[in-house]
């Protein structure tokens, strides 16, 4: 008789716990992983549009390269475009086209040859700024870079610091390319909405 009472009590407790967990109103649980926020809560004021202009120095030669090949496919040796090659970069961003001009940040990330027939890179990188009002902030780029084109456009997909919630685009134009060394200087105009 005591065993039957214990089983009934245990069953009642389990059913009660199940029902109470099932009927908790949505949004009342403290274990919810999301909630809606207001713009004011996040400190989001008026949206701004900024234009950034700088030069990207991709140095693959010499004792201190800023871009190094970290992987390649076996087919790379026979591919005209280097399809499958992956390069890791930490390229300086400068105000002027000369390497001696003021450094305002770094382009950090990867580019990979992602086109078997034309020279086209997949660009996955952050512009990490080290100067001025954008010091400590980043912009994230993710897109296709058809490097043989005179002007290319890649999307800005986000950012950090001043550039939280950023969106926009980056226009790239190669200023110099040394066929012997592979070193390049690329001019960037970046147009970005941010708060």
UniProtKB/TrEMBL annotation:
Q: Where is the signal peptide?
A: 1-29
What are the entry keywords? Answer: Apoplast, Secreted, Signal
Q: Which Gene3D superfamilies match?
A: Allene oxide cyclase-like
Q: Name one Pfam family in it.
A: Dirigent
- Bilayer-crossing residues are none
Q: Which GO terms describe its biological process?
A: phenylpropanoid biosynthetic process
- A GO cellular component annotation in the UniProt record: apoplast
Give the subcellular location. Answer: Secreted, Extracellular space, Apoplast
What family does the entry list? Belongs to the plant dirigent protein family.
- Function, please? Dirigent proteins impart stereoselectivity on the phenoxy radical-coupling reaction, yielding optically active lignans from two molecules of coniferyl alcohol in the biosynthesis of lignans, flavonolignans, and alkaloids and thus plays a central role in plant secondary metabolism.
- Tell me the subunit arrangement: Homodimer.
Supply the name of the protein: Dirigent protein
User: What is the scientific name of the source organism?
Assistant: Dorcoceras hygrometricum
């Amino acid at each position: 008789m005591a065993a039957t009472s214990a089983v009934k009590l245990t069953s009642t407790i389990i059913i009660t716990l199940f029902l109470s967990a099932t009927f908790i109103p949505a949004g009342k649980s403290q274990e919810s992983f999301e909630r809606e926020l207001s713009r004011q809560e996040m400190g989001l004021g008026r949206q701004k549009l900024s234009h950034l202009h700088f030069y990207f120095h991709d140095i693959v030669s010499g004792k201190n390269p800023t871009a190094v090949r970290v992987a390649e496919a076996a087919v790379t040796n026979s591919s005209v475009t280097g399809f499958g090659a992956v390069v890791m970069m930490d390229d300086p961003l400068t105000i002027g086209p000369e390497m001696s001009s003021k450094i305002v940040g770094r382009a950090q990330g990867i580019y990979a040859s992602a086109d078997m027939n034309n020279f086209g890179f997949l660009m996955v990188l952050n512009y990490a700024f080290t100067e001025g009002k954008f010091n400590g902030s980043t912009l994230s780029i993710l897109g296709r870079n058809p490097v043989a084109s005179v002007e290319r456009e890649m999307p800005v997909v986000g950012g950090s610091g001043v550039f939280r919630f950023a969106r926009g685009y980056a226009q790239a134009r190669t200023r110099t390319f040394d066929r012997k060394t592979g070193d390049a200087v690329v001019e960037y105009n970046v147009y970005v909405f941010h708060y």
